[in-house]
Design a protein that fits this description.
It contains six helices and 21 strands. It is α+β, with helices and mostly antiparallel strands.
């Protein structure tokens, strides 16, 4: 059981999202950083798509009222357990009565907290994800608040095995000596550009606007949220004036409304959109995208659909290999080397 002492700026329950209902106008929602989300669950022995606590810009303070297992992945929030630094991207055993305090994000925007056994919350349309505008999912469809209590499910056998491997060590810190490789994480989150495929209406934009889209920087506007990032930058102009029929949109779709300022659609995006689509962010770069803070700069780099597919297959292979390595380290009691 987890008690919320301070909720942070925007802390919600999220999982992979409410998939399969967009045809009925239901927003998919779900976690923003899918890579951090999946790895955090793997680290605590959960199924990859178990619900987590997602935190944004300013983290929460949580008290664990039972012994448990956590993993924090994503942005660096200078997390502390009872005043001591709490490592990230690795499993951590927390004793009953331990307090987790997360500060402002130093680098990046969002992190997730996975809890061994998962969170015991109602399932609404196959998901525990919070969608704030409709007030569904999570804790009564809202952000976490002071004195909220989050129940967690019993530990799985794998979670128990991880705890056993951590508590065998002599010392104060009940965490692994290994973590996900910082070099690998840097490759995922801090590339020079976001890889983007041309959108369905790319050819409707003026040649100068097409060139500017690839060559000029854009800044994330303060008027951004989980629905989408508004970008400040060069005006992108169409050469045709016809209105479009609304059509399906995806996580990472880049739309351009009449003012010429692009919008990148995110987890809480609408189900369809009628603005012209100049591009689509590659799935493998969505984790890097959602870690951008307001005011930070984005550059786009063109890739083909085939290149995007190959990159996604490579990422999935990497995650499978990471899972295998983590399982082996848990079984062996771990060592000092990074995973990945």
């Amino acid at each position: 059981m987890i008690r919320v002492i301070e909720p942070g700026l925007l802390s919600t329950i999220q999982d992979e999202g409410r998939n399969g209902f967009q045809q009925y106008g239901v927003i998919a929602s779900g976690v923003m950083d899918t890579f951090a989300y999946r790895i955090a669950n793997i680290l605590v022995g959960n199924e990859e798509r178990e619900a987590v606590i997602e935190v944004t810009l300013t983290g929460p303070t949580l008290e664990f009222e039972k012994d448990g297992l956590i993993a924090i992945c994503g942005a660096d929030f200078s997390a502390q357990l009872d005043g001591e630094p709490c490592p990230t991207w690795r499993p951590v055993f927390v004793k009953q009565g331990t307090t987790l305090h997360m500060k402002f994000s130093k680098k990046g925007c969002r992190a997730v907290i996975a809890v061994g056994g998962g969170l015991d919350l109602p399932i609404v349309m196959n998901s525990k994800s919070t969608y704030l505008r409709a007030q569904i999912g999570g804790l009564n469809g809202r952000t976490l608040d002071k004195e909220d209590v989050i129940q967690n499910n019993p530990l799985s056998q794998k979670s128990k095995q991880i705890i056993l491997s951590l508590t065998k060590k002599v010392g104060k810190s009940f965490t692994s000596r290994w973590s996900i490789s910082k070099v690998y994480l840097h490759e995922i989150y801090y590339g020079s550009s976001l890889r983007v495929m041309k959108g369905r209406q790319y050819d409707e934009f003026a040649p100068d606007s097409q060139q500017d889209f690839w060559e000029k920087p854009f800044k994330v506007s303060p008027q951004s949220d989980r629905m989408g990032f508004r970008l400040d930058g060069t005006e992108l102009k169409r050469t045709v004036s016809e209105d479009l029929l609304s059509e399906a949109v995806a996580f990472g779709t880049i739309q351009v409304p009449a003012d010429g300022q692009a919008i990148i659609l995110l987890a809480d995006r609408q189900t369809i959109g009628g603005y012209p689509k100049i591009g689509q962010v590659s799935s493998v770069d969505l984790p890097a995208l959602v870690q951008k803070k307001p005011g930070e700069t984005i550059h786009f780099k063109e890739i083909s659909h085939e290149e995007a597919q190959c990159s996604l297959l490579k990422r999935e292979q990497d995650i499978r290999e990471l899972k295998w390595i983590i399982d082996r380290k848990i079984e062996s009691g771990g060592d000092n080397h990074a995973a990945g």
